[in-house]
């Protein structure tokens, strides 16, 4: 599959998944990443110092500061338009979820017009 075909397929697959990441999802990703990263930092500090108290102290300071920074970073990227491709159908207001019959009609029309294979 060529890159062009891949991108075309991704565009079609995302036609019905035009979503924006919620703040709750960003927070959940922040927390899960910080657990992994903080454990790694505490382990490295312990390996070098052999002091559990220092490892825990660094971990607590790191987890609080980096969660805040990561969240702000994630939300900033969420607002950035660079690198995003706006789906051509995203500007069409849809009142609700499409029925399978209607989805089929739309897919067939897109094929007919040459937008999808």
Q: What's the short version?
A:
The chain is an all-alpha fold. 68% of the residues lie in helices and 0% in strands. The protein has one domain.
By DSSP (H or I, 4+ residues per run), the number of helices equals: 4
Q: Give the helix proportion (percent range).
A: 55-70%
Report the uncertain regions: none
What's the overall geometry? elongated
What's the pLDDT, averaged over the residues? 82
The secondary structure category is mainly alpha
Radius of gyration: 22 Å
Largest sheet: none
Strand content: under 5%
Number of domains: 1
From the N-terminal CA to the C-terminal CA, the straight-line distance is 13 Å
Order of helices and strands: HHHH
**Total number of β-strand segments?**
0
List the main descriptive attributes of the protein structure presented here:
single chain; about 120 residues; mainly alpha; about 70% helix
Question: What does the model show?
Answer:
The structure is a single chain. 68% of the residues lie in helices and 0% in strands. It has 117 residues and is mainly α. It has one domain. Helix 2 packs antiparallel against helix 3 (52-79). It is elongated and about 70 Å long.
Give the helices and strands, then pairings.
Elements: H1 3-13, H2 23-49, H3 52-79, H4 100-113
Helix pairs in contact: 2-3
């Amino acid at each position: 599959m060529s890159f062009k075909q891949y991108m075309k397929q991704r565009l079609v697959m995302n036609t019905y998944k035009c979503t924006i990441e919620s703040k709750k999802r960003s927070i959940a990703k922040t927390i899960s990443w910080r657990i992994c990263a903080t454990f790694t930092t505490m382990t490295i500090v312990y390996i070098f110092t052999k002091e559990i108290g220092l490892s825990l102290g660094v971990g607590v300071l790191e987890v609080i500061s980096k969660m805040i920074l990561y969240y702000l970073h994630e939300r900033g990227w969420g607002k950035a338009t660079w690198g995003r491709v706006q789906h051509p159908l995203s500007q069409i207001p849809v009142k609700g979820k499409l029925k399978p019959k209607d989805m089929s009609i739309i897919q067939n029309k897109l094929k007919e017009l040459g937008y999808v294979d």
